[in-house]
Write a structure and sequence with these properties.
Blueprint (H helix, E strand, L loop, with lengths): L2 H7 L3 H14 L8 H9 L4 H8 L6
Length: 61
Amino acid sequence: MTVDSIERRGMGPDMFVLTRIAPPVASDAPPVSYAAHIDPARKAGLTVEELRASWSPSHSQ
């Protein structure tokens, strides 16, 4: 994830990180697949609770 890619998409860093997390969640990937997104998500200001909510089954339907 780069600053340039965030700016081109016209969304905040938090929303951009959540859209990057969506594919592993939707494909029921193993939890290790999410690990690469944790540090950028925290730097974008997302809380642990927000990350957990994005990984819950109710959000991937």
